[in-house]
Design brief:
- It is built from 20 helices and twelve strands.
- By secondary structure, it is of the alpha/beta class.
- It folds into three domains: 309 residues, ABC transporter type 1, transmembrane domain (ABC transporter transmembrane region fold), CATH 1.20.1560.10; 157 residues, 3-Layer(aba) Sandwich (Rossmann fold), CATH 3.40.50.300; 73 residues, P-loop containing nucleotide triphosphate hydrolases (Rossmann fold, 3-Layer(aba) Sandwich).
- The strands form three sheets. It has a six-stranded mixed beta sheet, with helices on both faces. It has a four-stranded antiparallel beta sheet with strand order 2-1-4-5, covered by helices on one side. Strands 7-8 form a two-stranded antiparallel sheet.
- The mean pLDDT is 83.
Length: 578
């Protein structure tokens, strides 16, 4: 509940107004019941028409006020729920942007999605129901009991006993159902994860004719969720039946006792109507509260899951406060690795050990190595997706841990191995790194990336539609657009993480030639598997099992580094055989 209060606080004025309107609404309904009983008593006592008319006017006024407050209260409650839902989703999203890759693995992508969408929706529904159906209950309970005791003490005690029994039953069932709903949310995560795997990997599933196997996995996930949901809801089915039993029991007792009390002159006919009206209203709201209580264990578990994300301490944190005035002196040595070692949190040995190299302005540094040698991990360390275990990664001579992540990434441009484009247009994707880029700048970057010709061939050019992930473009086209996006930024350091792999040799050669001129004022780091892509680099770092097996130019490494020579000879042999 602490989480809910945290998000209600910025909207406390709207919350208080909502509660006040709903309280006036239910209080008006009780007043109407009282006036109706008074009208009945006056009628049986032979009151004048003027007296009956005055009572009727009071009832009409109370009805109008109660109705207006009900409408305004419902509207205010809907607005409050929507605003809290928006704030909660935004908070989870902002926190997810701060989570490292390791943090994301702890929660899971499907789980983060479920928490942001489904869990918040559950909380919104529970909050709306709680405000409208549960918060007015204490007010109705107190006012109804006062009015009931005022009419007849014995009837008041009976009403108090029935309400207390129903309330205790509801609390006990809610407590027993809490574990079931906690399990339900975990099963929802599992169901989302399996569904996401099947949707995103549908081509692989079909390619290997594994539809039946995946249907079995989905069926198992759906069945587990359904069975647990049935067990949880079965508990509340018993509560509904018992609640109706006690309501009917109370009505029978009231009618049974009231006959004798009317004969004895202790009650009037209108008083019976009033007492039953109070009881039905109290028990109606209790029944509605029970329905809300059905959602509370699940909503509380959703709150706990969102709280776990919001209160999670990210693995990567800024050691300095964000300050836009902070700047560091630009140097020729843009990037340097100083005795860098790195080990994943769940690993037993270092992934990288004692890396020492420098990326200078106007020069190209390349990293090559076999599969699993740690090439892409180097890029992750530069971007601070992970922090080094030992040593330091420096930008312009300053340890990147001593600057904010925003400042660091403002000076870098990264093109990942698996090119990713966002839904929108070609222009919006290229402007992702620089919102103020002009048409001429976009096309210049596209021409350098060898993407200009195919962009011009599109029906709408830069305004052509891009599907989510760039699925309406080929692998090579996506890579060239990703490279153009990086070039638009004009940073101090370009990082190309095996981002030429989908290009043919002719396009690769033309791109590298154009890049040399375009990036002459910046440092370039190329992570690659093909020797042909990096042979003209100013220096090449060779990685083998996480360690530097050699560093130098292409010709120097052919003479001094056996690992590099093996890579070169294997690729040359393959090319000759092809």
């Amino acid at each position: 509940m602490k989480l809910i209060f945290q998000f209600i606080k910025p909207h406390r004025t709207l919350f208080l107004a909502t509660v006040l309107l709903l309280i006036v609404d239910v209080t008006g309904a009780l007043i109407i019941s009282t006036l109706a009983a008074e009208m009945l008593n006056l009628g049986t006592a032979g009151a004048t028409f003027e007296t009956l008319l005055n009572t009727g006017i009071k009832m009409a006024a109370a009805s109008v006020i109660s109705s207006v407050c009900a409408i305004l209260g419902g509207y205010a409650c809907a607005c409050l729920s929507a605003k809290i839902g928006k704030d909660m989703r935004l908070a989870v999203y902002k926190k997810s942007l701060k989570l490292s890759i390791y943090d994301f693995r702890q929660f899971g992508t499907a789980s983060i999605t479920t928490r942001t969408v489904s869990d918040v929706t559950t909380i919104q529904f529970a909050l709306t129901s709680f405000i409208q159906m549960v918060l007015p209950v204490p007010v109705i309970f107190v006012v109804a009991l006062v009015l009931a005791f005022r009419l007849d003490t014995e009837m008041g005690f009976i009403l108090l006993a029935v309400v207390a029994v129903v309330f205790v039953l509801a609390l006990l069932i809610m407590k027993s159902a809490a574990l079931q709903f906690k399990k339900l949310q975990k099963l929802l995560d599992r169901m989302s994860a399996v569904l996401l795997e099947n949707v995103t990997g549908v081509r692989v599933v079909r390619a290997f004719n594994n539809e039946a196997r995946e249907e079995g996995r989905m069926s198992a996930a759906f069945s587990d969720y359904a069975q647990t949901s049935i067990k949880a809801n079965r508990k509340f089915a018993n509560l509904d039946g018992l609640s109706f039993l006690f309501i009917n029991f109370f009505v029978i007792v009231v009618y049974w006792l009231s006959g004798g009390r009317i004969s004895a002159g202790h009650m009037q006919i209108g008083d019976i109507t009033a007492v039953i009206g109070y009881a039905m209203m109290v028990l109606f709201f209790l029944m509605m509260a029970q329905m809300v209580i059905m959602t509370m264990p699940r909503a509380l578990e959703c709150c706990e899951r969102i709280r776990a994300v919001l209160e999670h301490s990210p693995e990567i944190c800024d050691m300095v406060c964000e300050d836009p005035t902070i700047s560091y002196e630009e140097r020729d040595e843009v990037l340097s690795f100083r005795n860098v070692s790195f080990r994943y949190a769940d690993a037993e040995k270092d992934t990288l050990s004692n890396l020492n190299f420098v990326c200078k302005r106007g020069e190209t540094t390349a990293i090559i190595g076999g599969t699993g040698s740690g090439k892409s991990t180097v890029a992750s360390l530069i971007l601070r997706f992970h922090d080094v275990t030992d040593g330091a990664v420096c930008l312009n001579g300053v340890d990147i841990r001593q600057m904010t992540q925003r400042y660091l990434r403002d000076h870098l441009a990264y093109v990942q191995q698996k090119a990713w484009l966002f839904s929108g247009t070609v222009a919006s994707n290229l402007r992702y790194s620089n919102q103020n880029a002009t048409y001429e700048q976009l096309m210049h970057a596209a021409d350098v990336a060898q993407a200009g010709d195919f962009i011009r061939s599109l029906p709408r050019g830069l305004d052509s539609y891009v599907a989510q992930g760039g699925t309406n473009f080929s692998g090579g086209q996506k890579q060239r657009l990703s490279i153009a996006r990086a070039l638009v930024k004009k940073p101090e350091l370009y990082i190309f993480d095996d981002s030429f792999s989908a290009l043919d040799f002719k396009t690769d050669a033309a791109l590298r030639k154009a890049l040399a001129e375009e990036t002459k004022d910046s440092a370039v780091l190329i992570i690659a598997q093909r020797v042909s892509t990096i042979r003209n680099a100013n220096q090449i770092v060779v990685l083998h099992e996480g360690k530097m097996a050699g560093i130098g130019t292409h010709d120097e490494l052919l003479k001094s580094c056996s690992v590099y020579r093996e890579i070169y000879e294997s690729q040359t042999k393959e090319a000759q055989e092809a």
